[in-house]
Amino acid sequence: GENVEQHPSTLSVQEGDSAVIKCTYSDSASNYFPWYKQELGKGPQLIIDIRSNVGEKKDQRIAVTLNKTAKHFSLHITETQPEDSAVYFCAARNYGGSQGNLIFGKGTKLSVKP
Amino acid sequence: DGGITQSPKYLFRKEGQNVTLSCEQNLNHDAMYWYRQDPGQGLRLIYYSQIVNDFQKGDIAEGYSVSREKKESFPLTVTSAQKNPTAFYLCASRAGVDYGYTFGSGTRLTVV
To answer: Which chain A residues have a beta carbon less than 8 Å from that of B101?
Structure first.
């Protein structure tokens, strides 16, 4: 089945710097890759997603890139702000035995220092 | 507004007791999911349901049970067989196979 690896597990940046989180997946048939942001004590919220027919997608300060050949995708946050501090999860959709369920990475704790 | 509601937000359980966590959605989503999250850990799938009256075990189903009698509701029971139930529990739903999940705000269960 699908396996998603996420790196780094923790990331600390200065306010205004960029942050990059990377994920790799194992199932070449996966075609949907969402990113979630989880603030302390809350449920994860979808912040951006990308499908396999697109190489890059942007939404203001957030962008996601996908390299299908290498089977990896990345989240890029520019001009980071303290409110970007949270845990970020990547995921990939597996069309195999789990009926299209999302497979999640283990998360990256991002800290943005003022 | 449409959304997914988990209740209660905090729950305390004595050892040996069963407790039920509520998850209700008014998004008309077919699929629903339960995840467990331990401090500093990722999301581990407990159970999921693609349609009413049907559900499947996830990666850590032992000590848990679910039901899906209505499309809107997917309650999770943490039984006394679950040896380490203290955790943050998240419910999610999905509109269709081409979409991501919508998560609830979670229930924090503590065994006292």
So the answer is: 34, 44, 46, 102
A 85-104: CB under 8 A from B: 89, 91, 93, 95, 99-102, 104
Q: How far apart are the first and last CA of chain B?
A: 36
Residues in B closer than 8 angstroms to A41, CB to CB, are 106, 108
**Nearest CB to B98 within list A32, A106, A109:** A32
Pick from A72-76, B32-36, B55-59, B98-102: least confident: B98-102
For B65, the token pair is 């049970």
Least confident of A18-22, A53-57, B94-98: B94-98
Residue type, A87: V
Closest approach of A112 to chain B, Cα-based (Å): 18
**Integer Cα distance of A102 and B35 in angstroms:** 12
Tell me the three-class secondary structure of B77-107, residue by residue. EECCCCCCCCEEEEEEEECCCCCCEEECCCE
Long-range contacts, stretch A49-53, CB < 8 angstroms, 24+ apart: A49/B100
Residue B42 to residue A106, Cβ atoms within 8 A:
yes
Angle at B39 between CA A47 and CA B6, to 5 degrees: 60
More confident residue, B72 or A96: B72
What is the band of B95 on the pLDDT scale with cuts at 50, 70, 90?
confident
